[in-house]
Design goal:
31% of the residues lie in helices and 25% in strands. The chain is α/β, with parallel strands linked by helices and 264 residues long. The chain folds into two domains: 62-171, Elongation Factor Tu (Ef-tu), domain 3; 184-260, 3-Layer(aba) Sandwich (Rossmann fold), CATH 3.40.50. The strands form two sheets. The protein has a six-stranded antiparallel beta sheet with strand order 4-3-6-1-2-5, with helices on one face. The chain has a four-stranded parallel beta sheet with strand order 7-8-9-10. Helix 4 (194-205) links the parallel strand 7 and strand 8. The longest helix is centred in the first third of the chain and has 47 residues, at 8-54. The structure holds flavin-adenine dinucleotide. Flavin-adenine dinucleotide is lined by residues 99, 115-118, 131-134, 136, 138-139, 142, 146-152, 172, 191, 194.
């Protein structure tokens, strides 16, 4: 038996088998590597979603400081507000599409005014939250006694950098499923673009390969905000985005990596 194992015939046969195995392994390697990459990407996305879901949150309201207030359009009726926890504690993560609920002590109101605003930045942005708010005027035919929007006017006219507001934790079930591989259709109108931007940025940050179709309508160029941020997508070039907007300015801002579909 030992003699047989040492015979040149056997050793060359086993050498051949080893060689054949290696060749087969190399052929498989490329496919395995691709498969491994896909699995790794999916695992990373799942881990990110788990992290977002399990993140520390808070019950009831918590105080946040407005660390930046930025006017977003020429006529000044849309502003972004950047918020950080007043207690210096952690900023819990959120899912793209979720919103913050504010409790505002507006004078002449019998109770705090409660309003929701979508988180407009990427969930990967862990140092501050951002909401982008349009100041609502009274309807055009409404007569002089009708007031403008309570909360949006308060944000624009009363709140400034350094002020502190009461905020409930991010919530909302209208979120983008980051674990799915299916194509995404995003539809937004006017300032309703805010959750859409958060979703697009989340896909971009995750290096997603999903196909995205983005539709947008705006009454006027003034309703278009955060154009520069849309213009930086997709930063890694992985997400395939087809965009269609009635807003010329937004379409001009979009970069080459995006397929433009004309709105009729
Ligand atoms: C999940 C969610 C996310 C949202 N995200 C955003 C966002 O990202 N950005 C954003 O800007 N908004 C967002 N909104 C809308 C926001 O919550 C508010 O509804 C919006 O800001 C208007 O609130 P307000 O208090 O300013 O206006 P309100 O006081 O509620 O008034 C609404 C309108 O009614 C008019 N009005 C008041 N009284 C009368 C009257 N007697 N007769 C006729 N008209 C009258 C006002 O002039 C105003 O135009 C979101 C809403 C939800 C539910």
């Amino acid at each position: 038996m030992v003699r047989l194992l040492r015979s040149p015939c056997f050793s060359s046969a086993s050498g051949f088998i080893r060689l054949w195995r290696r060749l087969r392994e190399r052929r498989l390697d490329a496919r395995h590597l691709q498969h491994f990459n896909d699995l790794a990407q999916a695992a990373l996305r799942n881990a990110e979603v788990d992290r977002l879901k399990s993140g520390t949150t808070w019950a009831g309201k918590r105080k946040f400081r407005i660390v930046e207030k930025r006017v977003e359009n020429k006529c000044g009726d849309i502003c972004s507000f950047y918020l950080q926890p007043h207690d210096g504690g952690e900023l819990p993560p959120f899912l793209p599409g979720q919103f913050l609920t504010f409790e505002l002590p507006i004078s002449d109101q019998p109770a705090p005014v409660i309003r929701c605003y979508s988180l407009s930045d990427s969930p990967s942005r862990l140092d501050r939250y951002r909401v982008t708010i349009k100041r609502l005027s009274p309807p055009p035919d409404a007569g002089e006694t009708v007031p403008g929007g309570l909360s949006s006017t308060y944000f624009h006219a009363n709140l400034k950098e350094g002020d502190v507001v009461d905020v409930q934790a991010p919530k909302g079930g209208f979120v983008l499923d980051l674990q799915s591989e299916r194509p995404v259709v995003l539809i937004g109108g006017g300032v309703g673009l805010t959750p859409v931007l958060s979703m697009l940025k989340a896909l971009d940050d995750a290096g997603s390969h999903r196909e995205v179709h983005f539709f947008h309508a705006a009454r006027s160029g003034d309703d278009i905000v955060l154009c520069d941020e849309f213009g930086r997508l997709p930063s890694g070039g992985t997400t395939s985005i087809t965009a269609c907007s009635t807003a010329h300015r937004l379409m001009l801002a979009l970069r080459d990596g995006i397929t433009i579909a004309r709105a009729s």
